[in-house]
Amino acid sequence: MDPNCIFCRIVAREIPAVTILETGETLAFLDINPIEKGHVLVIPKVHYPTLLETPDATVCHTMVVVRRIAAALMATGAEGVNVLQSNFACAGQEVPHLHFHVIPRTSASKSMSWASGVGKYASSEERDQLTTRLRDAAAPLLPPPSV
Ligand code: AMP
């Protein structure tokens, strides 16, 4: 764990996050500044700054969970899903702990925007209702296969 890393501190439960799915190696939680409602981040629990130094098995395991979150989003109203992952600051990476953005899209999506905050929830109740639906959709998919 890197004590200066915000995502490590989420894994350690030192900082709150709205968890959608947790496995032995990964955590999936709502992005605090969503591009779309239902925007989820999937991270390995172990700290690797970027995709480049992450072990193959960890990449595989994390991607299996990314796919499962994508399936849960599709089961709860998404018509399409973007998976986005950035490496290093010049590529737009703000948090140097490997993470995959899983972003639900519909035909009502304003545009193919990558701007943070565009998908803000109208209220905490709206976010909580969506969280429950997503957790319910993702839970039957556990446990992920070992890779
Ligand atoms: P990136 O620009 O790819 O590094 O994305 C970092 C993402 O982390 C952004 O979309 C932020 O909104 C998100 N983020 C930062 N802090 C938190 C937090 N405490 N909880 C959830 N998401 C966060």
Per-chain topology:
Elements lengths: L5 H6 L7 E4 L3 E5 L9 E5 L11 H20 L4 E5 L15 E6 L18 H15 L9
Helix pairs in contact: 2-3
The structure holds adenosine monophosphate.
Model regions low in confidence, pLDDT < 50 over at least 5 residues? none
Shape: globular
In round numbers, the mean pLDDT is: 92
Main structural class: alpha+beta
Task: Give the proportion of residues in helices.
Answer: 25-40%
* List of distinct ligands in this structure: adenosine monophosphate
Number of helices: 3
* Order of secondary-structure elements: HEEEHEEH
**Sheet with the most strands: spatial strand order:** 1-2-3-5-4
Distance between the termini: 23 Å
What fraction of the residues are assigned to beta strands by DSSP? Answer: 15-25%
What is the radius of gyration computed over CA atoms, rounded to a whole number of angstroms?
Answer: 14 Å
The counted number of beta strands is 5
- Main sheet record: 5 strands, antiparallel
Overview of this protein structure:
The chain has 147 residues and is an alpha+beta fold. Helix content is 28%, strand content 17%. The chain has three helices and five strands, in the order αβββαββα. Strands 1-2-3-5-4 form a five-stranded antiparallel β-sheet. β1 and β2 form a beta hairpin. α2 packs across α3. The mean pLDDT is 92. Adenosine monophosphate binds next to loops. The site of adenosine monophosphate has 13 residues, from loops.
For the structure shown, list the relevant keywords.
3 helices, five-stranded antiparallel β-sheet, 147 residues, alpha+beta
Please give a quick description of this structure.
This protein has 147 residues and is of the alpha+beta class. The chain is 28% helix and 17% strand. It has three helices and five strands.
